[in-house]
């Protein structure tokens, strides 16, 4: 597994998300300031539309979620689970900032625990 350079840290909006292409997959990367960086699939599994990077960030039940802009399902930025429908989930990816660059860890199965550290 390798760390892949995605973008410069300055390209990430504060407390928002951006979409990126990574390992043939559209991912969403969120910069939550002191809470850290998070990365997950950008495609909403309920609709198949690649738009989670545009979702609203919220804190529910002690976890951080992104609400899908279309039907408002909430996906955990930590584990990818969906509050409203247990059958829906997204992959999460390890992400870090190093020397001003945002790096995402490439994995064969693309299912990693999100960067909580």
TrEMBL record:
Cited Gene3D superfamilies: Rieske [2Fe-2S] iron-sulphur domain
Residues of the Rieske domain: 3-104
Gene name, Swiss-Prot/TrEMBL: nirD
Listed name of the protein: Nitrite reductase small subunit NirD
SUPFAM superfamilies recorded: ISP domain
Keywords, ordered alphabetically: 2Fe-2S, Iron, Iron-sulfur, Metal-binding, Nitrate assimilation, Oxidoreductase
Cross-referenced InterPro entries: NirD (IPR017881), Rieske-like_NirD (IPR012748), Rieske_2Fe-2S (IPR017941), Rieske_2Fe-2S_sf (IPR036922)
Source taxon at top rank: Bacteria
